[in-house]
Amino acid sequence: MAISPLKAMNGERVVVLIFVLRVLSSLPLALLPHALSLSLLSLFSLVVEIRVDNSPSLFKTRPGASSGIILGAVTLPTVMLSKLIQLSRAVSLQQIEIGELEHMTMQFWAASACSCGVLIFLFIVAWCAANKKNPHFSCSVWDAKFSLSCVILYSAVCCISLATISHTGFNTALKLLWLLCHGFATVKLIQHLLSTFPFCASIGEANLVTSGLVLYFGDMLACTISKVCRLLIPPELVSIRYGIKRSEIGIVIQGVLLGLLIFSAVFKFLIHLWEYFWGANNSESRERKEIWRSLIFLTSLGFIMIAVAPSWMMIVLDFDVHPVPWIFEFIFSEPFKRLSLCIYWLVLIYASVLRFYNISKNSKIERILLRKYYHLLAVLMFLPTLIYQPKFLDLAFGAALAVFLVLEIIRVWRIWPLGQLVHQFMSAFTDHRDSDLIIVSHFSLLLGCALPIWMSSGFNDRPLTPFAGILSLGIGDTMASMVGHKYGVLRWSKTGKKTIEGTAAGITSVLAACSVLLPLLASTGYFLTQHWFPIFIAVTTSGLLEAYTTQLDNAFIPLVFYSLLCL
After folding, report:
1. Which of 72, 64, 75, 66 minimizes the C-alpha distance to 434?
2. CA-atom Rg of the chain in angstroms
3. In angstroms, how far is the first alpha carbon of the chain from the final one?
4. Are 182 and 117 in contact (CB under 8 A)?
5. Range of the domain at 24
6. How does the protein's chain sit in the membrane according to the entry (predicted)?
């Protein structure tokens, strides 16, 4: 039976469509093919979400969350399109080279290909499930025809757009193959994620994570191949950002993350190898086996992070010295400021963690409210640093992410002697969105603050964009939760907990923070080009998304807010 379009629209879907329409309304005519492709992707994702929501349980997703397919599918492509709009202004002002714009065009199409691949996969799964349940249904036939039309039109627009930035047909074919690999890799990765970590994420959250990973490591792979064998990759496929214009800090962060990815695979292989040859010997005590596992962990981690990862960094960028000494040289280039910041951070973290951990064990305060204090802690830690030491904060975010990943590996594998202690400590701050398999809240908060800052590197004519995560999570989300919990009466929906009072408080607090931040940035030398009406639209849209979505807001809201601030 067909579903009325009006009945199919809920609050989250309406806000997402408003978000997409806001970005599309800001596009120049030169980006019309990109607008058409994003429109088709949005319609296709809406059809898929409605179909999946009305099908039997297809995947073991996070309880209490909607599928979030449309939000997960359009977020990354819309972020890339917003960045593309921003770089188009830079090209018109002759502040960047055309190669950087072409690179961002490829990133947009790669992000779109990742989402499109996942949507096709989800539609096929839902189609097969519905066919098994009821072989006679005309609605699914209409859905299939509409979806197939969207995919065909999307593919045609993609080919036309890529042909305009390619010199030969071979280059166009090579780029299409590159996009196809992105889509295939994302599908395989989301299948692995949903099966390996059941009940840990919604489909939309899994789509965002897998698309982001494929996009990020695909960029690293293209960078590596272009450096090792430039003759095999056309120059326009790999932009100038892979060369001399890529910063040392960006390469260090990518190298560390690549090293941890390699380490996790190598460590798992070594453990299986060790258990195969020596694990059968039950005469050894359990404690001795744990010590051996710890030694394997530390040895492999140290070798990869000191030898393997820096070797990759030196391949893709010409460092004057080894990357490890370079990091220390960078920190001590301004020793007083940067070491003072490190001491300031350590004092804040120690005092806050000790205080909140004791409260979490002895208090009946809801975990979700307790964790909002860490959002405020992020404001205290990151806001002053972003204004006065932005490059150091870039590196610090990379270091913090690496530490979080190592601690999560220690917790999951129960590496002696810290594994159980880390698990007990982290469990004190979990809520219904976390599980014993993987704890994501601290990652989402860190990345929610870091991603807008990392993406704002290079040309940026909108000074508020680096602050998107800090403002939306540290101030807006925190005030919305606290005010809504204490004073909220009018709820947005009968089944949800979000209140109108909380949303109004979140929007007002972010606008107030912007009114303070803009003059402060102007006093430090920023050239302000943002006007209040676009800022108001961005703050209101992201605030409404926080009110309606059941997805992990730390992951989506900063990206949505960042995209709207770029316009």
Report:
1. 64
2. 24
3. 41
4. yes
5. 6-244
6. Multi-pass membrane protein
